[in-house]
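The protein record quoted in full:
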Amino acid sequence: MPRKFVKRALAAIFGITVAASIGFAVSPASSAVTRQAAATPFKVLAFYNGTWDAAHIDFDKEAREWFPTAGAQYGFTWEATTDWSRLSASGLSQYKVIMFLDDVPPASQRAAFQTYMQNGGAWMGFHVSAFTTDANSWSWYYNTLLGSGAFQTNTWGPTAETLKIEDRAHPSTAGLPATIQSSVSEWYSWSRDLRQNPDIDILASIDASSFPVGSDPNQQWRSGFYPIMWTNKTYKMLYANFGHNDMNYSTNTRTSSTFASAQQNQWLINGLLWLANAGATTPPTTPPPTTGPISPTTWYSVVNKGSGKCVDARAAGTANGTAIQQSTCNATNAQQYQFVPTSGSFVRVNNRGNSAQVLDVTNVSTADNAPIQIWTYGGGNNQQWQPVSEGGGYYHFVNRNSGRCLDVPGASTADSVQLVQYTCNGTAAQSYRLTAQG
C-alpha cells in the first residue's frame, strides 16, 4: 500500500478532509475500569463521515458498537450522526459533550462550533481530527484550540507504545500509573511545540522506552518529544493522538482495536466524565496498585507493564500443564493469584481457579524461553518466585531454580502469548503491577 504520508498529501491536493478516529469504552468482559455511573446522566453526540481510509471507516464502525455499551455502563447516552448541520446552537442544546470521530466540520458549520466552545461547550477529538497541511485554513481550530498547527510527520506501521503520564493531577489521569500502555495506532507529530504554549496542558507523551516508534525505517521516530493527549486550559476539551486501527488493506479487515488498552480506556472514560461535569463524585478508577507488602491472603491481578494485559490461565484451565499466558484483563479467577511465602523471600504463586496449582517452569528448566504453566505445588524450586519491588506497585518475579525472570516473549502485546522465563533485563516485558481483587 502507499506510504501514509503520500496518501495525506494526495488528500490535501484534492481537498479531502482527512478523517479522525476515537476510542473509549470497553465491554464488560474486557474492562479494567470500575463500573460506576456518572453522577448526572448526560448525552454525547458524535459527528463522522466514514468516507476516507479503511482504517478510519473501520474505526467509525467500532465506535458505533462500543460507545453505546460504554454509555450503559457509565450513565450516558451516545449518538452518532453524519448530519453536520446539527452542529448549531439549537442542535447541540441537549448534549453535554460532542465528538469528532473522523473529520472536522464543513466550512459552513465552523463558526457554530467555535461559538459552542467559546460558550463553554465540551469536545473530544482524536487522531486525524487535528490533521491539516494548512493550519491557517481554520486558524482558531488548529492554532488556538488544538495549538498543534499543521501535520509534520507520521509513524508507520501502526504500533502500541508506552505512554508517559505528564500530568497525573488532571481528572482524566486519575488512578493511572506513571506510564501506561496504548492501543495500536499510527502517530502524528506537529509543526508547533505544545510545550511552548502556556494554554496547553500536555497529559501524556511517548515514553523514551518506546523508541523507535513505527516499523517502517523510513517513517520512524527514534528520539524526541511527542505529545499524545492534551487539553487546552482555556476550553473544555481533550485531544488524543491515537485512534487509527491497524488494517489488512487488501481485505479491509481490522487487525487491532482502539479499545484494546484498559489503561487508555480508563483515561478516556475519566476524561469524558470530566468534560460532562458528571464524574466529580464517582470517577471511574481501577483499584489502586499494591505499593506495600504483598498480603499472603489477598488475591491479585497481575498486569504486564509492556502490554497492559493480565497473567492468565489459558481457557480458565485447572489441569496440570495449563499454559500461563497474557490475555485482555477480565477479572475472572483465571487471572487472579495469591502469593504465599515458602522460605526466605520466595513465594508460591497460587492460581485462584485451583489454589493447589502454582506458576511452574516447565520441566524444571533453567534455560531462557522455558514456558510457564500451572502445576500442583510440590515444593520444587521451579515453583517458587521472588517478588522484587520496582516501586509504584510494579514487581519483577525471579524464579528460585533458574534465577531468571517471568517474561512476555518478544515484548509481545498480543493475547494468548504463553509466558516464559528469561534472563532478567529490567524491561517492561518483565514488569508486573499487582492490584488487589475482591
